[in-house]
Design goal:
Number of helices of chain A: 0
Distance between the termini of chain A: 28 Å
Largest interface: A-B, 26 and 25 residues
Structural class of chain B: mainly beta
Order of helices and strands of chain B: EEEEEEEEEEE
Shape of chain B: globular
Distance between the termini of chain B: 40 Å
Largest sheet of chain B: 7 strands, mixed
Radius of gyration of chain B: 14 Å
Largest sheet of chain A: 6 strands, mixed
Number of strands of chain B: 11
Helix content of chain A: under 10%
Oligomer: heterodimer
Number of helices of chain B: 0
């Protein structure tokens, strides 16, 4: 059971918009800690997609955006493309665990 | 370019130890924390801890305290993660990842991963 909760899967057709949510608690996201998002393509290492809740590292398309509100965060992907099919993970810091925590991951399927 | 290159796959017996290396290049090794993350087959990401390559200070996830040791050798820009008393539950791909500077920033460069298999 992950400290940060993500839906196991989400799907969308090419060109559509999808959102992936990440729900935490008052000991992590709700405590004000930043949320980062990672994309993991099959058989590869994770890649930083969103840093500090909403910042895109250089090279990440602006189709990807992040937001945070209260104890939750969201990753939005617009203009879905086949290459977006991957696992997506949120990550934050948890004060009660004194360490970083990941969400369980959401598998995005492009129909 | 900034790069993290990890050591090769390992096969270990239960009860043994494994030490994974992570060689950094293209940036100032001592300027950025190094984190370790693992991923069991078909499972999600699990944070293990970090090391400050400059001071050697470490912070381990509660789950691994007493069983993991993170070290570094600044002369060769390499970080290490050693895990003791291995069980089959430790079968996973282990990643090192460099953290961007600043509290609001994430793990921006990852190693290619090292597969560790624990089997009798």
């Amino acid at each position: 059971q992950s400290v940060l909760t993500q839906a196991p899967s989400v799907s969308g057709a090419p060109g559509q918009r999808v959102t992936i949510s990440c729900t935490g608690s008052s000991s992590n996201i709700g405590a004000g800690y930043d949320v980062h998002w990672f994309q993991q393509l099959p058989g590869t290492a994770p890649k930083l997609l969103i840093s500090g809740n909403s910042n895109r590292p250089s090279g990440v398309p602006d189709r990807f955006s992040g937001s945070k509100s209260g104890a939750s965060a969201s990753l939005a992907i617009t203009g879905l493309q086949a290459e977006d099919e991957a696992d997506y993970y949120c990550q934050s810091y948890d004060i009660s665990l004194s360490g970083w925590v990941f969400g369980g991951g959401t598998k995005l399927t492009v129909l | 370019q900034v790069q993290l290159v990890q050591s090769g796959a390992e096969v270990k017996k239960p009860g043994a130890s494994v030490k994974v290396s992570c060689k950094a290049s293209g940036y100032t090794f001592t300027g950025y924390y190094m984190h370790w993350v693992r991923q069991a087959p078909g499972q999600g990401l699990e944070w293990m801890g970090w090391i400050n390559p400059n001071s050697g200070d470490t912070n381990y996830a509660q789950k691994f305290q007493g069983r993991v040791t993170m070290t570094r050798d600044t002369s060769i820009n390499t970080a290490y993660m050693e895990l003791n008393r291995l069980t089959s539950d430790d079968t996973a791909v282990y990643y090192c990842a460099k953290k961007q500077s600043g509290a609001a920033y994430g793990l921006d460069v990852w190693g290619q991963g090292t597969a560790v298999t624990v089997s009798s």
